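Incident log, support desk, overnight shift.

02:14 A customer reports that sequence design results differ from what the structure should imply. Their input is reproduced verbatim below. On-call engineer (initials T.W.) acknowledged and began investigating.
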């Protein structure tokens, strides 16, 4: 779970529990910017992820949990690892 932010032409969510920032790849997220969401999806190769994303997810489901939240996402710290390969990923608290 986290808040959708728009940065660098991409939509990002920072997981509230793990503090991992995920780039969400789906066209229709503009209406979700600034909203708290729960995302289900599949991790995809993240070599071209928008900074500060740690991972890239092709989401299959976005459930809106709230109408307003802090959509500020800071820069990725040096040394953070990005997920590589494919596999299921659930962002939840």
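02:41 Re-run completed on a clean worker. Output:
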């Amino acid at each position: 779970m986290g808040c959708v932010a728009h940065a660098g032409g991409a939509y990002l969510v920072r997981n509230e529990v793990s503090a991992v920032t995920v780039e969400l790849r789906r066209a229709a997220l503009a209406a979700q910017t600034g909203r708290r969401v729960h995302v289900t999806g599949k991790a995809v190769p993240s070599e071209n992820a928008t900074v500060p994303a740690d991972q890239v997810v092709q989401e299959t489901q976005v459930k809106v949990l709230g109408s307003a939240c802090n959509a500020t996402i800071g820069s990725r710290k040096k040394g953070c690892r990005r997920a590589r390969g494919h596999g299921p990923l659930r962002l939840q608290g």
